[in-house]
Design a protein that fits this description.
Radius of gyration: 10 Å
Structural class: mainly alpha
Order of helices and strands: HHH
Oligomer: single chain
Strand content: under 5%
Number of strands: 0
Length: 54
């Protein structure tokens, strides 16, 4: 998930905390925000846990 990548890679949060925080926020993002995160993170293919990002 993009938020999980952002929290872990950019903010330096540990994997479990980044997952918990992202899980709470993921349903509230606008499509434009997801697109911006995808561009900023250079279109990651997997989250920090190794799960593919659709």
């Amino acid at each position: 998930m993009l938020l999980e990548c952002f929290f872990h890679e950019v903010l330096g949060m540990d994997i479990d905390s980044s997952y918990e925080e992202a899980s709470r926020m993921k349903h509230e993002l606008f499509t434009e925000t997801e697109d911006a995160l995808r561009r900023y993170l250079r279109n990651p293919s997997r989250c920090p846990h190794g799960i593919p990002i659709p």
